[in-house]
Specification:
CATH superfamily of one domain: Transferase(Phosphotransferase) domain 1
Keywords: ATP-binding, Cell membrane, Glycoprotein, Kinase, Leucine-rich repeat, Membrane, Nucleotide-binding, Phosphoprotein, Repeat, Serine/threonine-protein kinase, Signal, Transferase, Transmembrane, Transmembrane helix
Strand content: 15-25%
Number of strands: 57
Subcellular location: Cell membrane
Radius of gyration: 38 Å
Helix content: 10-25%
CATH architecture of one domain: Orthogonal Bundle
Structural class: alpha/beta
Protein name: non-specific serine/threonine protein kinase
Catalytic activity: L-seryl-[protein] + ATP = O-phospho-L-seryl-[protein] + ADP + H(+); L-threonyl-[protein] + ATP = O-phospho-L-threonyl-[protein] + ADP + H(+)
Largest sheet: 23 strands, mixed
Shape: flat
Enzyme class: transferase
Number of helices: 14
């Protein structure tokens, strides 16, 4: 009984205790509730302030709204936001939401925020200092935006940060050494910005770092040896900078490293043997540097290596046998070095190899006959420009994976393997400049995907297989300088995709192909010169409406020249020399607007040479050997000689003119003289009144010249106000644009000058009833011209002599350029051939130096923003003067928030990234300059209308032309240049490569103007840069976004030699 009572008392006590405890907890919750609500309210207010300060065109933040209670916030309804148990904001993830504007400082109020991810948006402006003060922040990702400014060296409060990703922005300045204070940092990505200066040695203290990227900047100096202390590092990517010095041997301690990329720098010295200790390495990229010495044998220890790219250096010696131990190797690029020795036989056993580039070395010996049998993945093989001999391995396409085989300029001999012409995967085949012989094997056209065939300069014999006309994918066939014979297959020239056909210097016979261009007219180059063709040139040639070059010389063509040739809309170069053509020269050729070069020498032509057009500048070598021709050209008999004799003979026997009385002659003469004197007097009086009226009108417009405010910018003599005033006449107008008119004037001493009169806008002054200049109206570039040209001096920049402020207009006075603009000289059909290649090269160099001065020597940097051929003026000696700074800006005045109603720049010259962001940079000027280089090379306009009526840019056109050697320049060089000498071809080819580099779709792949000047200097004319790696991406790559390069650097595209 007592026991039961005790149990009852214990139970009651327990119930009382539990109830008390419940009351206590409830009281505590009630006491804590205001602070939690307060916290909720503060974080919600910060988020709503963030939303209000940015643009959200996709309405991704529509779920962010002011909460009516705590439950509204304690849910997943807030897009991209995560909350803690205590309802604090701990994570914001708004990746790829197309948000724009500046990142507001209010985010600094989220003291519990651990993760902030705003990647892949359009944020601009500087990174707020408040972001660096978030004490709980663990991950900060602001990559792929347009952020500018510098990184603030205030990392004391974010020492818990483990991930900092600022890749692909517009950040400048140096990388602060204080970043080493973030000791917990695992990932540091600063790539794709504009950082300068050296890498701080303090980075070597970040011992937890496993990912470090600083590629695509402008970093200088040496690679700090202290990076060898980062033993946990897995990625080290410092490519595309301006780093110098040697590769530190201390990097051999990075046992966890999987990627090491120092490509496209200025590193020198030898490759450290210690790199062979990087047992985890899968990718080693050192291409485009100045590395010397042999390839270390120790690299053969990198058993996991898949990519080895050391192209475009100065490496020497043999390719080590130990490289054959790398059984996982997929990519081996050693091209453009000084490697010697025999062709590595072990390559035949590399079962994972898919890309092999060994071109432009000094390799000898033969390729292994088993090459291809044990290479099931081999797709790209380029061994051109070596001294490789022997036969082409017969099994290269045994696994039907080979797509590109390039082996030109070697000592290869023997016949072509039949397997190559039965290879369904093969797309491009280049074997020119070898010792190959025999006939072409039978072609399996139904399986063939070949687009480009070039086997010129060999000793092939026999006829062309008929089946070649069934390869519908063919775009280019170049089989010149062989010993082919027989008839050309008619089907070949009917192929719809064929663009280039060159079969010169062979033994072909038969008539002119009757079915030429029977398919769609895409053929633009046809060269069948130096063969045995005969008969008449068929009028069917008129179907080749895209034809640019037609070469039929040194054959036996007879009959007349077809009138239809003059109707070809694109024909620029026509060679009919050394044939048996007769009859007259068609007048239609003289009316061709596109034809700029013609050769009709050594035929049997008769009659007059048409006047005008291409015949105006005909030289003797272009018409000699035709004794029946006549015309008003030096060296030819005049066509009027016989006519003149006929006139003399027809005058005999005429009646003597009847003599009238003398008075009948004198009276009309007297009346005529009197009337003439009266007319002259009236004209003089009228002109005097007109000039007085114009003077009064000019005074009303400009005011009295003596009242003008003139600002002088040159110490040399400049025009007086009266001389400028006299120039402002309509008859002196030499140009007119969107900002005003341009007049040519002359000082009283005979010195010419130019006046640019800028348009003015007016506001109606209601109080005074008069017109006054608007203070807020557009100044049409007046201030920009004054700010820029008024403070700079360079021999290749136009001189601003003075400025004048008149009553209604602003006037700018410049030196006069006798030869107009580069566009005038290049594209004026009445002045073809005015610029030889030497002059064009000098113009390119001088224009580059002028732009380099603006970008690199002016403080602050000056962006021109409208580089084009019409703004490159030429004086009497064809010296360059860069002009038109109406839209130029100092770099510190071009803010990311700048709003423009009109895009600065001209169609065809605008960089891809600027067209959709309206944010100018020096790389935009570099792109425009690259287009000018393409104009100098091709003579084409920046944008032209194709046969299909669609506009095509010069950049796109050039990228499609597959130019990879100096000999290929014939396909793109301006026909006005004529036949270039070999040195000129190589120089033009080099300038083309520089132009393509400048017009890269990714701004980060473009060089600076300082680099452009160095590349264009004659001393570098024989230097090569990468045509195999990321510096020259695949020509079919149409990436245009600013982030494309860094989005895909893990899956690089490689360009083969076309």
């Amino acid at each position: 009984m007592a026991t039961g009572r005790a149990l009852t008392l214990s139970f009651s006590a327990l119930v009382c205790f539990s109830f008390s405890l419940l009351l206590l907890l409830s009281s505590f919750q009630l006491l804590a509730q205001p602070s939690i609500s307060q916290k909720l309210s503060a974080d919600a207010a910060s988020l709503l302030a963030f939303k209000a300060s940015i643009a959200d065109p996709l309405n991704r933040l529509s779920s962010w709204s002011a909460p009516s209670s705590s439950s509204a916030l304690n849910s997943s309804s807030w897009f991209g936001v995560s909350f803690s148990v205590s309802l604090s904001v701990i994570s914001i993830t708004l990746r790829s939401c197309n948000l724009s504007g500046s990142i507001p400082p209010v985010l600094g109020n989220l003291s519990s925020l651990q993760r902030l991810d705003l990647a892949d948006n359009n944020f601009t402006g500087a990174i707020p200092a408040e972001i660096y003060g978030l004490p709980s922040l663990v991950s900060l990702n602001l990559s792929y935006n347009w952020l500018s400014g510098t990184i603030l060296p205030t990392f004391q409060r974010i020492d818990r940060l483990q991930e900092l990703d600022l890749n692909t922005n517009c950040l400048t300045g140096t990388i602060p050494g204080d970043i080493a204070n973030i000791t917990e940092l695992r990932k540091l990505d600063l790539g794709g910005n504009s950082f300068e200066g050296a890498l701080p040695a303090q980075l070597g203290t970040l011992t937890n770092l496993n990912y470090f990227v600083a590629a695509g900047n402008s970093l200088t100096g040496e690679i700090p040896p202290s990076l060898g202390n980062l033993t946990k590092l897995q990625w080290l990517y410092l490519g595309w900078n301006q780093l110098t010095g040697t590769i530190p041997s201390s990097l051999g301690r990075l046992q966890s490293l999987t990627l090491l990329d120092f490509s496209h720098n200025f590193l020198s010295g030898s490759i450290p043997a210690e790199l062979g200790s990087l047992s985890s390495l899968t990718e080693l990229r050192l291409y485009n540097n100045i590395l010397t010495g042999p390839i270390p044998r120790e690299l053969g220890n990198l058993e996991r290596l898949k990519d080895l790219d050391m192209a475009v250096n100065k490496l020497s010696g043999e390719i080590p046998l130990e490289i054959g131990n790398l059984i996982d190797l997929e990519l081996l690029h050693l091209n453009l070095n000084n490697l010697s020795g025999t062709f590595p036989q072990w390559l035949a056993n590399m079962s994972n190899l898919y890309s092999l580039y060994l071109f432009s070395n000094f390799l000898t010996g033969e390729m292994p006959s088993s090459m291809g049998l044990n290479n099931p993945r081999l797709q790209l093989m380029d061994v051109s420009s070596n001294n490789i001999s022997g036969f082409i391995p017969p099994n290269l396409c045994a696994r039907s994976s080979l797509e590109v085989l390039i082996a030109f300029s070697n000592q290869l001999s023997g016949p072509l393997p039949a397997s190559l012409f039965d290879c369904p995967s093969l797309v491009r085949l280049r074997l020119e400049n070898n010792l190959l012989n025999g006939s072409l094997p039978k072609i399996s056209a139904s399986r063939f995907s070949l687009t480009y065939l070039r086997i010129s300069h060999n000793s092939f014999t026999g006829s062309i297989p008929l089946e070649i006309g069934n390869i519908t994918s063919l775009q280019a066939v170049i089989i010149s300088d062989n010993q082919f014979e027989g008839y050309l297959p008619e089907e070949l020239l009917r192929l719809q995709r064929l663009q280039v056909f060159v079969a010169a210097q062979n033994k072909f016979i038969g008539g002119f192909p009757l079915q030429v261009c029977a398919g769609k007219p895409k053929l633009y180059l046809m060269d069948i010169g130096s063969n045995g063709f005969e008969g008449e040139i068929t009028p069917a040639i008129s179907s080749c409406t895209g034809l640019i070059n037609l070469v039929l010389n040194d054959n036996h063509f007879s009959g007349g020249i077809p009138d239809e040739l003059g109707s070809l809309p694109s024909l620029g170069y026509l060679d009919l020399s050394h044939n048996e053509l007769n009859g007259p020269v068609p007048a239609s050729l003289s009316s061709s607007a596109s034809l700029v070069s013609i050769n009709i020498s050594f035929n049997r032509l008769l009659g007059p040479i048409p006047a005008g057009g291409v015949f105006k500048n005909l030289t003797q070598s272009q018409y000699e050997g035709n004794p029946g021709l006549c015309g008003d050209i030096p060296g030819l008999q005049s066509c009027s000689d016989d006519l003149f004799s006929d006139k003399i003979s027809s005058s005999h026997g005429r009646d003597v003119i009847h003599r009238a009385p003398m008075i009948s002659y004198l009276l009309p003469i007297f009346c005529f003289i009197l009337a003439l004197m009266l007319l002259l007097s009236a004209l003089f009086t009228f002109d005097k009144c007109r000039r007085h009226r114009h003077t009064m009108e000019r005074q009303a417009t400009y005011g009295n010249p003596s009242s003008w405010k003139i600002t002088m910018f040159q110490t040399s003599t400049f025009p007086t106000s009266e001389e400028i005033w006299l120039a402002l006449k309509e008859e002196n107008v030499i140009g007119q644009g969107g900002s005003g008119k341009v007049y040519k004037g002359q000082t009283f001493s005979g010195e010419p000058f130019v006046v640019k009169k800028l348009y003015a806008r007016y506001l109606d002054d209601m109080e005074s009833g008069s017109l006054r200049r608007s203070e807020s109206c557009t100044d049409h570039g007046y201030n920009a011209e004054l700010e820029t040209l008024g403070r700079i001096r360079h021999r290749n920049i136009v001189r601003l002599l003075c400025s004048c402020a008149t009553r209604e207009h602003d006037l700018l006075v410049y030196e006069y350029m006798a030869n107009g603009s580069l566009a005038d000289v290049l594209h004026d059909k009445s002045r073809p051939g005015l610029l030889c290649w030497g002059a064009r090269y000098r113009i390119a160099m001088e224009a580059a130096q002028a732009l380099c001065y603006l970008h690199h020597d002016c403080i602050p940097q000056i962006l021109h923003r409208d580089i084009k051929s019409t703004n490159i003026l030429l004086d009497e000696h064809f010296t360059v003067r860069l002009s038109d700074f109406g839209v130029a800006r100092s770099s510190n005045h071009v803010t990311s928030s700048e709003t423009m109603s009109v895009i600065a720049g001209s169609c065809g010259y605008i960089a891809p990234e600027y067209a959709y962001t309206l944010k100018a940079s020096d790389k935009c000027d570099v792109y425009s300059f690259g287009v000018v280089l393409l104009e100098l090379i091709s003579g084409k306009m920046p944008v032209e209308t194709g046969l299909d009526g669609q506009n095509e840019s010069l950049v796109a056109w050039m990228n499609k032309k597959m130019i990879q050697t100096a000999e290929d320049m014939i396909y793109v060089a301006d026909v006005n240049l004529g036949q270039l000498q070999q040195d000129a071809k190589e120089e033009a080819f080099w300038v083309l490569k520089v132009a393509l580099k400048c017009t890269s779709p990714s701004s980060y792949c473009r060089p600076s103007m300082k680099e452009v000047v160095e590349m264009l200097r004659p001393k570098t004319a024989n230097r090569s840069f990468s045509v195999s790696s990321t510096s020259f991406k695949d020509r079919n790559d149409d990436a245009s976004s600013k982030s494309e390069y860094f989005r895909s650097f893990a899956q690089r595209s490689y360009t083969v030699q076309w």
